[in-house]
Design goal:
By secondary structure, the chain is an all-alpha fold. It has helices at residues 2-34, 39-70. Helix 1 (2-34) runs antiparallel to helix 2. It is elongated.
Length: 71
């Protein structure tokens, strides 16, 4: 049963990370479309924001596997 719960947590974390990064990328693309001269600063924010958004699901997966090891 604990294997199933870890699989569910890992899959939800992966999907949440994908949605988060998609929102960040969508916002940057919209910003560049509206103001092309801001491409550089927006691209820098993208390269900073995407890993920050992706860090939370990685922590969730690590915690799920740590709980699996302790059960």
């Amino acid at each position: 049963m604990e294997f199933l719960s870890v699989a569910i947590v890992a899959s939800i974390a992966a999907v949440a990370g994908a949605f988060g990064v998609a929102i960040v990328v969508r916002s940057v693309v919209q910003g560049v479309t509206r103001q092309p001269e801001m491409r550089g600063p927006l691209q820098t924010l993208l390269f900073i924001g995407a890993p920050l958004v992706e860090a939370i699901p990685i922590f969730a997966i690590v915690i799920a596997f740590m709980l699996l090891g302790n059960l």
